[in-house]
Structures are given as structure tokens and as C-alpha cells.
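Incident review: delayed structure delivery

Summary: a single-chain prediction request sat in the queue longer than the usual turnaround. Root cause was a stuck worker, restarted by the on-call engineer. No data loss occurred. The affected request and its eventual output are reproduced below so the record is complete for anyone auditing the incident later.

Affected input:
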Amino acid sequence: MANRARRARTLRILIVLGLQGGCLTSQGIGPNATRPLDVVPYVNLELFSGEWYVIESIGLDVEANAYDQEEIYSLRADGRIDVTATFYDGGFDGPHRILPQVGWVHDETTNAEWRIRPFWPLSLDYLIIDLDTDYAWSVVGHPSKRWVWIMSRDTVLDASILAGIRQRLGEQGYDVSRLRPIPQRPFNERPFVIGAEAD
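Output delivered after worker restart:
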């Protein structure tokens, strides 16, 4: 019964995400508010895979109070990508949420445009719009400019790098005033989670 209720709650959350993802109106600001997002020229999927820490975001409603937020990308033998989002909800001592999804490359010329599926048949656009040459940080956006995630391989990102990312996001038409810093604990303070609740 508890599992059935959990699945029903998860489905409601994902349906809401799907309805949000279907909104095509640009939420950007400035002269580039309605201009399509520029993606990076090329993404090496093997270098991009692995664990990322979300440093700042304009996130989905379900992520509004995320702490220790991570994104994990795992390449599959069938060419698809397992995408696992995890975070603590409402504080470092809040419930640990796991949001499993599957992704695939939509534009194989650049590997910078993906589709992400939280459940069939819904798929959401996923654009890699800024990327460090050494894959130390990355930025993922949505064509509507309603959402964006700034991620790093470390739990912190140098202030000068973050300032440059924010400037480029503004030039792409994002309202950077809406960016929310994601609280991240240092590695040695993060708990080892066993049996976390999956949403």
C-alpha cells in the first residue's frame, strides 16, 4: 500500500513537471529573451558522464528546496543515458529524494541537445549551453529559459568562473536574478545514504 501511494505521488509530480515542460513561452529577459539558446559546439559523452554537483539553478518546482543536489549520468550499452537526480528536500536533514530518468542524444552532430524522459511518453528538452574545456563545470538549459542548472565536478565553484557563467546566461536572455544557490556540504560532511527513498 505504501509503495502504491508513493508511486501515485511520484506520478503526480512528474505530470506536473510535464505540464511545466510543455510551456513554450520564453521566460527570459532583455533583447535576447526570445532568441533560441546557443548550445556548445560539441560534447564528449564519456567525459560528460559521471557525477555533477548543482551549484546554482532556476529549477523545477520539485527542486525548490533542494540541498546537496547532484546529477549522475551513466552511459548505457544501448546508447541511452541513465540520468539520476538526487537531493535532500528542505534541508540537509530532510528526506533524501532520488529521481531516476533516461536520456538520449537528439542532435548527434554536437551531442549538446538531448531529450530526457522521466516516464513514458513524456520527454523534455535538455540543452548543454556552456561547458568547461576540461569538463570541470557545465550549464544545462531549457529552450523556454524557464530553467537552468549550473553544475560542477566539485561542491564549490570559483566565484570568477560563476560570474562569467552568469554573464553569458544573461547574454542568452536568462533572468539571472532568479538563480538560486544550492547548499552543498563538503565531501567529508556528506552522509553515505543506504535505502534512500526514490521519487
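Verification: The domain at 2-24+38-193 is CATH 2.40.128.20 (Lipocalin).
Action items: add queue-age alerting; document worker restart procedure.
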